[in-house]
Amino acid sequence: MNLELYDLIIGRRSIRQFVDRPVEPQVLDKILEAAFYAPSAHDRQPWRLITVTRKDTFGEMQAVHPYLPMLNTAAAAVLVCGDLSVAPEHWQMDCSAAVMNMLLAAKALDVGSCWCAVAPHEDRMAEFSRIFELPEQIAPFAVVALGYTDVQKPLPKREIASKIHYETW
Ligand SMILES: Cc1cc2nc3c(=O)[nH]c(=O)nc-3n(C[C@H](O)[C@H](O)[C@H](O)COP(=O)(O)O)c2cc1C
Asked: Range of 71's domain?
């Protein structure tokens, strides 16, 4: 870990171009583990993760999702799913928190990442359920693409002052 948490939050960017280097299993494990410490409604922890490194599977994913070109160079991808049987109402929010933990953990470990939506697009969800043979109660939520990168992105401009209100709107 080489950055303070606040710097990690501010410095994280979506990375879509990776170098040809695998993410070591122990590094990938730490990124996955971070998901499990996210907050979740009623502490139901509905996230379920599938790690993918096979290029032919990347190709299948790209064939049904229009915004996954980064899988051409990614070392790994994680399909984050939600178990509807344990959190039918809040699973998407819970999985969002898990994804964010993974993005920040990846950044802390010098691994680039990109969050790619599967839910709530019903067509994509159906195709991902098919490709990964998901049981009925498991819904695909997002793909997190991962890999080492040499891309350096500048700090984007953010309009902040006009969007924060004090005490009332
Ligand atoms: C819900 C969600 C869905 C996203 N889906 C995609 C996607 O399918 N493909 C992609 O390249 N980026 C995707 N992104 C990444 C956004 O494009 C990115 O976060 C945004 O442009 C801001 O850039 P930054 O992450 O570098 O700050 C998604 C981000 C979120 C939060």
From this structure: 13-130+142-148
Measured over the CA atoms of residue 137, residue 143, residue 146 and residue 152, the dihedral's sign is: negative
CA of 168 from ligand 1 middle (Å) equals 30
Q: Is 0.90 topped by the overall pTM?
A: yes
pLDDT digits (tens, 9 = 90+) for 109-127: 999 999 999 999 999 999 9
pLDDT digits (tens, 9 = 90+) for 134-159: 999 999 999 999 999 999 999 999 99
The continuous run of DSSP H or E covering 112 comes out as strand 112-117
Instruction: Supply the residue whose CA is at minimum distance from atom 23 of ligand 1.
Output: 14
In a domain, 32, yes or no: yes
> Residue 124: CB within 6 Å of ligand 1?
no
Distance CA 4, CA 115 (A): 22
Q: Between the CA atoms of 75, 92, 8 and 157, what dihedral angle is there, to the nearest 10 degrees?
A: 100
Of ligand 1's atoms, which has the minimum distance to the CA of residue 70?
11
Number of domains in the chain: 1
The CATH number assigned to the domain holding 118 equals 3.40.109.10
Mutate to test the pocket of ligand 1, among 10, 15, 113, 114 (most ligand atoms within 8 A of CB): 114
